[in-house]
Write a structure and sequence with these properties.
Elements lengths: L13 H33 L15 H11 L10 H17 L7 E5 L6 E4 L7 H22 L3 H32 L4 H6 L11 H14 L11 H4 L9 H25 L8 H4 L11 H23 L5 H31 L4 H21 L8 H5 L29 H4 L13 H9 L1
Antiparallel strand pairs: 1-2
Helix pairs in contact: 1-9, 1-11, 2-9, 3-4, 3-9, 4-5, 5-7, 5-12, 7-9, 7-12, 9-11
Length: 445
């Protein structure tokens, strides 16, 4: 029994561990094939199209056909690429993505059919398992960075730089949202966190942190509307531009495994893990939370979150890069910090013997003080348009070509008025309205 861990791995042997690891890899690979079909089918239905419907029953073998096509395509290597890093980059992304599920609990202890052998439905666990998940996600971005840099091309390098900034921005918000769970559960072990949600799933009392995590996980996995590292419009697929055949397939595989990973982490930390939903959990004194039933509940929750990924992709448009970074640094991270400080304060107050009435009074007082400060805060005046217009050539506004390359205006700057707008065409002269006498004369004529 590992201290600080709810699951008991004392009966596991080396053979058991190897079998679990192989089953996890098989599960992830088959889940990716299903996820690709699932995404195409859902987006097609949202766009009133049938989607994959030719290969296999309802098109289920379409993903397998695409995988075989990538396997048989010609494998090209860019002449100017750093060959070692060029080949190593996709392997890093896939390897780090496969590591996360080592600490994800699929269920409690299960009994192997036709035997009396029981083992936790989890490969392993340790007191800082959630930090291990964050570490794997952080190292996985090196595959993207090295893939873009080693290609020896401009667009992949820009995609790699974007990816670095993106992961730093949204991983901070994600980590802050997970700290809320650590405070309430009192542990960073995944099995212990699931055990702490016996009476109440953490997404209810920690709803702000759950929202921050949901937004951050979309940005962390480079999915729409946050797919800036591989934006097709301006980067022509970004860091994957110079990859083909199976090397491209590895990056593609890593992206979908990362989606499954963050969905599994959200399920484990916020949605009760493998526990059945509330009405079902009361049947037969929790009989649906024993045996192999929990594996079903865990997979159902993961695929609900996967549907959320697909729904967001089919609904929202890609953000601009400046909007993306402003949202991460100026909205998500400050909000996560304020929520974390508030949660830690009330958690400390509760452990110190402060009553619930005193907490409510303290909340009302703090809220009133914040509203007074916001009311008295001096309003920032809008920038002087005349001064901004005078910054460019001939007082006509911001000079976008001052440095030799066209750049967009920064806040407080304004582009000059269009020369076409200044060319006002005078209206054509109109004849005065005819009098009734002229009308009568014209009719008589």
């Amino acid at each position: 029994m590992i201290p600080g861990v709810a699951a008991d791995f004392s009966a596991d042997t080396i053979v058991t561990t190897i079998v679990k690891a192989v089953l996890i890899i098989v599960f992830l690979l088959t889940s990716v094939l299903f996820a690709i079909w699932f995404e195409r089918k859902v987006v097609a239905r949202m766009q009133l199209r049938p989607g994959p419907n030719w290969h296999g029953p309802i098109g289920l073998l379409q993903s397998l056909a695409d995988a075989m096509k990538l396997l048989l395509k010609e494998d090209l290597t860019v002449t100017r690429a750093d060959r070692v890093m060029y080949l190593l980059a996709p392997m890093i992304s896939v390897f780090c993505a496969l590591l996360v599920f080592a600490v994800i609990p699929f269920g409690p202890s299960v009994t192997i059919p036709f035997t009396d052998y029981s083992t936790p439905a989890q490969l392993t666990d340790f007191p800082v398992a959630t930090l291990y998940v964050l570490a794997c996600a952080s190292i996985g971005v090196y595959g993207i960075v090295l893939g873009g840099w080693s290609s020896g091309s401009t667009y992949p390098l820009l995609g790699a730089v974007r990816s670095t900034a993106q992961v730093i921005s949204y991983e901070l918000a994600m980590g802050l949202s997970l700290v809320s769970v650590f405070i309430m559960a009192g542990s960073m072990s995944t099995s212990s966190i699931v055990e702490s949600q016996t009476a109440l799933w953490w997404f209810l009392p920690l709803a702000p942190a759950f929202v921050v995590y949901i937004i951050s996980m979309v940005g962390e996995t480079n999915r729409l509307p946050f797919d800036l590292p591989e934006a097709e419009g301006e980067l022509v697929s970004g860091y994957m531009t110079e990859y083909s055949s199976m090397k491209f397939a590895w990056f593609f595989l890593a992206e979908y495994i990362a989606m499954i990973n963050v969905s599994a982490v959200a399920t484990t930390l916020f949605l009760g893990g493998w526990r059945a939903p509330w009405p079902l959990s009361m049947i037969g004194d929790g009989v649906l939370n024993t045996g192999w039933w929990p594996v079903l509940w865990f997979l159902a929750k993961v695929w609900v979150l996967m549907f959320f990924f697909v729904w967001v992709r089919g609904t929202l448009l890609r953000l601009r890069y400046d909007q993306f970074m402003v949202f991460g640094w100026k909205v998500l991270i400050p909000f996560a910090l304020v929520w974390l400080v508030a949660l830690a304060s009330f958690r400390w107050a509760g452990l110190s013997g402060v009553t619930r009435t005193q907490m409510i009074v303290a909340i009302l007082v703090v809220f009133a003080l914040v509203m007074v400060v916001l009311w008295l805060w001096p309003q920032r005046k809008a920038p002087d348009r005349a001064a901004a217009d005078g910054a460019g050539p001939e007082g006509g506004g911001f000079d976008a070509f001052a440095g030799g390359y066209p750049v967009p205006p920064l806040p407080g700057q304004a582009l000059p008025a269009s020369p076409r707008a200044r060319r006002t065409v005078p209206p054509a002269p109109q004849d005065p309205p005819a009098s009734p006498a002229d009308v009568d004369a014209e009719e008589t004529r």
